[in-house]
Design brief:
Radius of gyration: 16 Å
Structural class: mainly beta
Order of helices and strands: EEE
Bound molecules: zinc ion
Distance between the termini: 45 Å
Shape: extended
């Protein structure tokens, strides 16, 4: 079942929301502070199939300077 993880931008609360339709833009609300300012986190469980694996993620230095 499609369960997306959200994080509140206001208080930083992480919660998961059950979404019926993937295309439907459900409005999420923080259960902690009831703020609508939430962002969807990228979850990698269930979506990725076997075989798909990223290589060693080396920490890239931030460009700039
Ligand atoms: Zn919150």
């Amino acid at each position: 079942m499609p369960i997306y993880e959200y994080q509140c931008n206001k208080c930083g609360q992480v919660f998961d929301k059950f979404v019926r339709s993937m295309s439907a833009q459900a409005e999420v609300e923080c259960p902690e502070c009831h703020s609508k300012d939430c962002r969807k986190n990228m979850t990698t469980f269930g979506t990725m199939g076997a075989g798909a694996g990223y290589g060693a993620a080396s920490s890239c230095a931030p460009t700039g300077g």
